[in-house]
Amino acid sequence: MNDKLPAHDWPTLARTLFTVLAAVVAMASLASCAAPKAEGLSGPLVIERQGSFFVGGRELRSDTLSTLPPFAPSGTITVDQMYVHYQVPTAANRVPMVLIHGCCLTGTSWETTPDGRMGWDEFFVRRGHPTHVIDQAWRGRSAVDPTTAISIKMGKTPPQQMPAVFAAGHEGAWKIFRFGPAYTQAFDGLQFPLASQAELWKQMVPDWNAALPQPNPTVSALSQLATRLRSAVLVSHSQSGIYPFQTAALSTQGIAGIVALEPGSCPAADSNMQPYVGLPVLLLFGDFVEQSTDWWVPRFKACENFVNALNLAGGKAEIMRLPDVGFSGNSHMMMQDRNSLDVAEWLDRWIARRIEGR
Amino acid sequence: MNDKLPAHDWPTLARTLFTVLAAVVAMASLASCAAPKAEGLSGPLVIERQGSFFVGGRELRSDTLSTLPPFAPSGTITVDQMYVHYQVPTAANRVPMVLIHGCCLTGTSWETTPDGRMGWDEFFVRRGHPTHVIDQAWRGRSAVDPTTAISIKMGKTPPQQMPAVFAAGHEGAWKIFRFGPAYTQAFDGLQFPLASQAELWKQMVPDWNAALPQPNPTVSALSQLATRLRSAVLVSHSQSGIYPFQTAALSTQGIAGIVALEPGSCPAADSNMQPYVGLPVLLLFGDFVEQSTDWWVPRFKACENFVNALNLAGGKAEIMRLPDVGFSGNSHMMMQDRNSLDVAEWLDRWIARRIEGR
Predict the structure, then answer these.
(1) CA triplet A128, B41, A230: central angle to 5 degrees?
(2) Closest CA to A351 of A108, A337, A343
(3) SS3 assignment, position B168
(4) Which of A22, A276, B273, B289 is deepest in the core (most CB within 10 A)?
(5) A46 reaches B (C-beta below 8 A)
(6) Could you tell me where the beta strands, DSSP code E, fall in chain A?
(7) A41 in contact with B, Cβ within 8 Å
């Protein structure tokens, strides 16, 4: 990893120390984490409490709420809130988890896999973690602000000002999710259950991420949620990869650690590392990264640079690919791959060691 | 109820028979159902299995998927599918339930109440029912089709053709939800937990109902779901009130009964009653209906006419207001009112008697 370090003029001693430290951490990970099998997951699930709530949100007064006769165009709505669904097991003796979905998806990413197996939401509950699955602001059960779209329909706002919503097509998603080199072609040994791909496509929703107000309400809501939970691992995926870091930059209160699964972006290697220095951080990628030269190779490299910079600043971050720890064939959707629960088991052991100090 | 019968020229005998029958049914309901208290709901919840899946959906090829550089404008997306979240208790000895939310809301309606109490989703699981909470097509976790909005942004479609989405303002919802006669004024004895109203407002999302393709994909998805479940009670709320009847008109397969909570509309009294004749049907309203002269009084009357016509055709339908069976102060959001679990208990007993024949 270290040959990717940015070309700063670091003192030789620091550089050497860091190289040794990184090697030790990597070896420790490899030694204890070779592809465990998830077991003990059958039998009834016993829940202490479950439910849902919202975090954040603001009231918005608008005169463009409706063009339909029975519903008033003027009034107050609430937008920017973040939906949270949670389950707490009876024997909750582990650190709480917050599962944050990626682009064009909702919290369903973590629920039942496309081929009908247990999702990571239930896995972590069964392992003793109070588990929280969110829908990002403006996605899923978290309301979109529709007032500009309605204003355009009314002729009050130019159509070019339509918020930048987009839908990811199956064809493009196929490549970004690393199912194969080109649409309908699969990588050899791919773990994603392609026979059930239709169910994944149904999980996808339009993405209003580019239209969100700034600062991003999902990030401030995650900060509020972490504070409320007192100690939580923020687990991001893909487009949300940067969110736990942005949350930590607001405040580290309540953040026990960060797990970024295939982050679409990481903090810049030359940015302020202080918010993350005290946090256990894992950046975890699947297989076939090096075959995604236009999309994932540059993203992996940028994240590697971030990890190196963070560790040099005194942090305790790791970046790895699942093949490095004994898994092969994993796609971008590792929580839905055929070996998803084995990957979850590996991650749970990482959390126990690095975050809970077990 | 019978003085509201439509002015058809029915034979006197049928009319008399119907009047007697309706009275017997109403008395039986009153005798056995006076405001029971929900009990035995504490302690751990034991789940046999849980998860989510989608029903329905179609592939849509479009050239207006995106205006953002990294995402292709052309490709295939999946739309019109319906999200289903379910829990099956270990001792599932009761009829499966499907909980269908109303206007401007999602499946969160049935989850934790705004003031943090158990939702009807968990209540029915604890009472032994496999319970299914859906998000209607184009709502919540069920994807909206964004292609027309994006085409408008691209200048390819006139802005007037923006699909008719609307957001219900707090002010208008206050009256339709029957919290009081005017915004911020509450009815005496109102059961809705107004101190937590902000949480209800956060549950609300833009409603694309008027823009849905026809036939309504939620209805065909409900039919597929009922068929899959083999025997299910379809429980609708408000705007979705007509859906279980439209579902039954497609096919009665898998429909064990229909419970319409405060239906916004009912089948016309002069329409074909045959699809509903064999089904136990309950139309249940809260309190203060007669004070909503412009909204709920005409809707209640139209539904009463439907019930009368259905029973005359040999059906077994009931329409009642919660005050008729011993509850007072209930709003339109009876599943979130302070006495929500007592109302659920009453409903569960009705289901046991009328649908399960216990």
Answers:
(1) 35
(2) A343
(3) coil
(4) A276
(5) yes
(6) 45-55, 58-62, 75-79, 82-89, 97-100, 131-135, 232-237, 255-261, 280-285, 316-321
(7) no
Cβ under 8 Å to B: A residues 54-73? 54, 57, 59, 62, 65-68, 71-72
Query: Rounded to whole angstroms, how far apart are CA atoms B190 and B180?
Result: 8
Which residues, 6+ apart, have CB-to-CB distance to A318 below 8 Å?
A25, A26, A29, A281, A282, A283, A307, A354
Q: What is the pLDDT of residue B36?
A: 82
Please list the ranges in chain B whose pLDDT falls under 50.
Answer: 1-10, 24-33
Question: A106 to chain B nearest CA, in Å?
Answer: 7
Element (DSSP H or E) covering residue A329:
none
The pLDDT-based confidence of A289 (bands split at 50, 70, 90) is very high
Per-residue pLDDT tens digits for B140-189: 999 999 999 999 999 999 999 999 999 999 999 999 999 999 999 999 99
Residue A66 with chain B: CB contacts under 8 Å: 166-168
Contact call for residues A9 and B7 (beta carbons, < 8 A): no
Residue ranges of alpha helices (H) inside chain A are: 12-32, 120-126, 147-154, 170-176, 197-203, 217-229, 243-250, 296-312, 340-350
pLDDT of residue B326: 97
A223-279 pLDDT, tens digit each = 999 999 999 999 999 999 999 999 999 999 999 999 999 999 999 999 999 999 999
Q: How many CB atoms lie within 10 A of CB A70?
A: 12
Indicate yes or no: CB of B169 within 8 angstroms of CB of A72. Answer: yes
pTM (2 d.p.): 0.91
Find out whether A77 and A143 touch, Cβ atoms under 8 Å. yes
Per DSSP, the residues of B69-107 read: TTS-SSEEEEES-EEEEEEEETT--S--EEEE--TT--G
% of chain A surpassing 90 pLDDT: 88
CA distance A36 to A31: 12
Q: What is the pLDDT of residue B6?
A: 40
Please return the burial class of A335, using the count of CB atoms within 10 Å of its CB with bins 0-12, 13-18 and 19+: buried
DSSP B166: B
* Per-residue confidence (pLDDT) for residue A1, from 0 to 100: 35
Query: Is A122 in Cβ contact with B50 (below 8 Å)?
Result: yes
